[in-house]
Amino acid sequence: MGIKAEGVSKLYETAGKRRQVLAVDGIDLEVDEGEFVALVGPSGCGKSTFLYMVGGFISPSSGRILVDGRAVTAPGTDRGIVFQEFALFPWKTVLDNVMYGLQEKGLRRKEAEATARRYLEMTNLQAFERVYPKELSGGMKQRVAIARTLAYDPKVLLMDEPFGALDAQTRVIMQDELLRVWQGTQKTVLFVTHSVEEAIHLADRVVIFTARPGRIKEIVPVDLPRPRSREVELFDRRYAELTSRIWRAVEEEVKKSMELRAATGVAP
Amino acid sequence: MPRFLSIALVFALWEALPRAGILPAETFPPFSTVVATTSQLFLTGEMWPHLFSSMYRWAVAFVISLAFGIPAGIAMARLSAVRNFLDPILTATYPVPKAALIPIIMLWLGAGDLSKILVIILGTSIPLVISAFHGAQGVEKKLVWSALAMGTDRRLALFKVILPAALPDILSGVRMALSVSLIALLGSEMIARQSGLGYLLFSSLDVKAYDLSYATMLVIAIMGFAFDWGFVALMGRSLVWMEREEGSDG
């Protein structure tokens, strides 16, 4: 399932139009089926807003988004989302969280349980299925959130800085788990991150957003062979060149965004 | 220090001080006398009709308050029209002691059960509306989005996400409403006196039957304690997931 954005903009207005903020401005982007695309840019640049529009949670002020050729008007089970904040249902156990999407799909409890258990096993959570989210560490919560989204098998994965709240070691492990799953299922992934290293390690292409209003500054293909190993990345010249190229472009926008913030006194 | 030692100490002083003559036994009968009077009231049957009429008013009013207050609070959080309508009323009536409205309500509805029940509803609804409002308004937007992405119908998300997510706040509102409802009950029975625990309490004070007053107070205190204890016992087991999270994330 491919994604196509045509001239997508988002204008936020306060009541009475006294203040207007153009968050996203004229995004054109095509993501192929099975492609892994990372979105990077300074915080507040509208990359998450763009992701939420692909998800159908908010609607564009102009332009349109097509998923598998059909215009997005609302959230749908073809697009799964994983948030930085996990957004697990705290009143449900780990197993019931992962079963939620399956039961909404109409699966009977027995079938839903079996599928959910398979994904809990895949994410090494089988020992925690009766536990409530509050008892889990951040990394475990995020594994539940990912298992919950993978379990009902959406063709597109939207990931909103999913590893942003995790410690460095956990993040590395989770990145590789995600790659393993993605290579096994060939889902289309749109991955928002503020980490250039993460974007390069994961993605086929890196989309660099400008400071607000968010436009596409540059799209950089990551033509490094897979599977990518961190040991190789450390010494590979192409990797170093890519990192510094993308990092310079992002840094430029981060500075602009900081100047903008200093001038207007508005936090992102 | 063992738990309940403080309460045992209060009872011990209550027994000892009047007996020692430090407190006047006429206006401050010893604990054992009060307990004896209380059991006497139950044994002779004098207490039952009052207890029943109080419980009847309380139960009717509390059920109506729950049925109105919780949906109203959630509606306030989700619909700005409802919020704009109810919020000024709530802000204006919140600080008014509901018992002060009894004379006016009696003027409209007479001095019977109806007025008393209405007064209790007025007092009890407010903490319920406010807690349901805060609970529903505080529901993380991304929780609802997650459910929608997994195929939950937008209208059903109210029951599948917002209601359970708001439950901790709603339940602490119910706990507060339990104690407020008892105060409103006694207030209404004190002002429009016919029957009930409030009637018993204040009429006995008027005729200086202090042992009767203390006995009634003891019954009221036990009732309040039983309500709260019953609530905690009922809720504590079914809502293990609610206890505060240890990390700051979540």
Describe this structure in words.
- The complex is a heterodimer of chains A (about 270) and B (about 250).
- Chain A is about 40% helix and about 25% strand.
- By secondary structure, chain A is α/β, with parallel strands linked by helices.
- Chain A has 8 helices and 10 strands.
- Chain A starts with a strand and ends with a helix.
- With about 250 residues, chain B is an all-alpha fold.
- Chain B has a single domain, classed as Orthogonal Bundle (MetI-like fold).
- Helices cover about 75% and strands about 0% of the residues of chain B.
- Classes of the chains: A alpha/beta (about 270), B mainly alpha (about 250).
- Chains A and B meet through strand 6, helix 2 and helix 4 of A and helix 7 and helix 8 of B.
Number of helices of chain A: 8
Count of extended strands of chain A: 10
How much of the sequence of chain B is in beta strands? under 5%
Tell me the strand percentage band of chain A. 15-25%
Give the distance, in angstroms, between the N- and C-terminal Cα atoms of chain A.
32 Å
Mind summarizing the main beta sheet of chain B?
none
E-strand count of chain B: 0
- The overall pLDDT of chain A, averaged over residues, is 92
The sequence of SSEs of chain B as H and E is: HHHHHHHHHH
What is the overall number of helices of chain B? Answer: 10
Question: At CATH's second level, what is the architecture of chain B?
Answer: Orthogonal Bundle
Radius of gyration of chain A: 19 Å
Mean pLDDT of chain B: 89
CATH class label of chain B: Mainly Alpha
Q: Assign the structural class of chain A, choosing from mainly alpha, mainly beta, alpha/beta, alpha+beta, or little secondary structure.
A: alpha/beta
